[in-house]
Amino acid sequence: MKTTSRSWRLLLLATAVLAIAALGVAGCGGSGTTDAGGVPAPAISGFTPQPMAADTILGAGASFPAPLYMKWGSDYNGVSGVKLNYQSIGSGGGIAAIEAKTVDFGASDAPLEQAELEANGLAQFPMVVGGVVLVVNLDGVADGQLKLTSDLLAGIYMGTITTWNDPAIAKVNPGVTLPATKIYVVHRSDGSGTTWILTHYLTDAAGSVWTAGADKEIAWPVGVGGKGNEGVAASVQQLSGSIGYVEYAYAKQTGMTTAQLQNKDGQWVKPSIASFSSAASNADWKASLPSMYMVLVNQPGADSWPITGASFILMQKDQADAARGKAALEFFNWGYTNGADAATALDYVPIPADVYKLAQDQVWPTITVSGTPVWP
Question: Which end of the chain has less neighbouring CB within 10 Å, N or C?
Answer without folding.
Answer: N
